[in-house]
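Quick one, T. Sequence first:
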Amino acid sequence: MKASNAFWAEQLAGQIPEGLAREIEIFETELRLRRQGKIEERVFAETRLRRGAYGQRYDSGQRHDGKKVQKLLYPSGSLTKGPNTLWDAPGMQRIKIPGGGLNARQLETLAELAEEYSDGIAHVTTRQDVQLHYVHIDDTPSLMRRLAAAEITTREACGNSVRNVTACPFAGVCQDETFDVTPYSRALSKFLLGHPDCQNFGRKFKPSFSGCSEHACGLANMHDLGLVAVERTVDGVKKRGFQMYVGGGLGTVPYQAKLFDSFVPVEELLPLAQAIARVFAQYGEKKNRNRARIKFLVNDLGIEKFRELVLEERKNLPPDPRWTEYVQTAEGFREEPLSAGGTIPAGDSEDFRQWIRTNIRPQRQEGYATVTVALPLGDITAQQLRDLADIVRKYTNETVRTAVEQNFVIRWVSCADLSEIYRDLKAAGLSTAGAGTIVDVTTCPGTDTCKLGISSSRGLAAELRKRLAEQSFNLDAAVENLHIKVSGCFNSCGQHHVADLGFYGVSRKMAGYAVPHFQVVLGGEWEHNAGSYGLPMMAIPSKNIPEVVTRLTNRYLAARKKGESFRDFIKRIGKAEVKNLLEDLTRPPAEQSDRGFFRDWNDPREYSLGDMGVGECAGEVVSSVDFGLAAAERQVFEAQLALEAGDYHRAWQMGYQSMLQAAKSLVAAELPGISDDPEQIVQEFRTRFYETQKFFDPFAGGKFAHYLFAAHRNVEAPRHPEKARFLIEEAQLFIEASHSCYYRMGTPVTV
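Structure tokens:
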């Protein structure tokens, strides 16, 4: 039986910093008031999110222990009436791990909490956090206290706040880095946590640090604030600083970060970050949540105007001793090895040699290496966490970090100990090879627990990983070094935009059935701090995605030029050839007696979007909608071809036309014979689908409709590459939303 909140409050009194203890007490009081109906849900929602407490999805209508729940989604709508209100379904607790840094005691604490409050599994995220699923909201104060006693916080792990400050897990030991960014990431994390200037954002704010520009460990280009280590010689003295990037982000429509300054000296890091936070809080969107990220502010103002506002704000900031104190204190950070260095052993088994080749990275310090512990799907059991704690104590001074590829990195391992650490990891079930290769598929939670999931990203990732692992000993190096990333929806939590092979979940009707699909995203670049973003190519049924991977990689091997990257190869052969290669995979099988094709991966049930929604729209389903949406798909593909050819005006126009076509298809279901007049199409769509909320996604609302409205208003606006690309991304999302709306307009045929 779990101990009460009061027990842990008494047990841990004096072990938690006073300010943090008081915050948890306040949260516990607000939780009690919400149960009594004295705080509105919308107010409490931001409170719990800022403490890392999320809702999660229950597709089957069962909670994890098999009991029936009132609502599938927690906690919205799941309160019973009366003085003794309770939440029926557990949710998810996100735990903030700045820079990914952990020690053995913290690993053991996470293990205890995973066992006592969750399902015995901890999940490493793509931003170095740890998540526990199936955590009941009533247990969160105890969980937070036990974490705080181990010097871990959940504060601002979610919500409209500064999220986890991520940093390269190889910082300080990487052979290619300019300098160790660890101290500075820690200083920024400490400075911004709970800072008054960071409490009035319209949306989240994500910082990251990278020690170099060539690798992907920091992913500076896709962050709100990206910092890349650089050095400059001033008056004969070498000085440390950062290339500072602002306004990056993935999400539905990805934006590349803009260079704010090519050299920000370390002493200006904290005050300049504070000034950026103040400008974001003052000028950022507050009412329209869909445009409230800083990437929209930077794009709307332009980087020059944004820089001007920030520098003016910096000039007016009152001096803060913490700017210097936090950095100087952090610069005292040192890591030392436990054992003397050695040499990498040859190994006496093929499995060990494969592990050495893919999971071992020599450090800049001779005789030492980092060991990457690859976690399939980012999951690790409570017992494995304990085993990992024992291993890092045995072989290192507890130097271990989480990585953005959902793995653990053990640092400062003597090369002489690699045989023995492999033996211990193997005994713990943690010796999987293929870290950082095509086998190491990244995925978000998808339909397993996420309320926004459309297709099973974890199911697909597991299948791809299994098939690729079977071939791992025979993979060509060019293919082995590719990256696959899978998201359950368009929001890019699996980072599909920066993968060589990216996939995100969508839905389509085929042969009268709703069928899980994935959009194929090609052209992304993982290296160079997420150097470029891919574009969605075409939607393929989920069960055909493994064949997509096979065909594309085989084609690459057969036709690539010497030294040609996969991204350059795709660009050279062109989207038309890729579409021809995959076109037959878009169709259902001729023989449809095997209903497995119409179900999602690892799910025996009928596929449905019903778990996402809150009701269906009325309307008559007519076959012309299918034809119209297919035409819209064709037009947005033509827009991509025009973008590829450098005809940005045509790219923009075709993207706009594809949205018009999709809107017309929906309107025609209610108003047969509607004309081709854009004004009438947009007005009828607005009246029949936007104002009635029929088009509204259960969680995105009318967000995608605004893409059409904005394009229609700006039909004569000048075109250039970035705007054409954004418009194409928006058009693809509008078409996806049209497919979903069409699905809700009728009664699905059951499998």
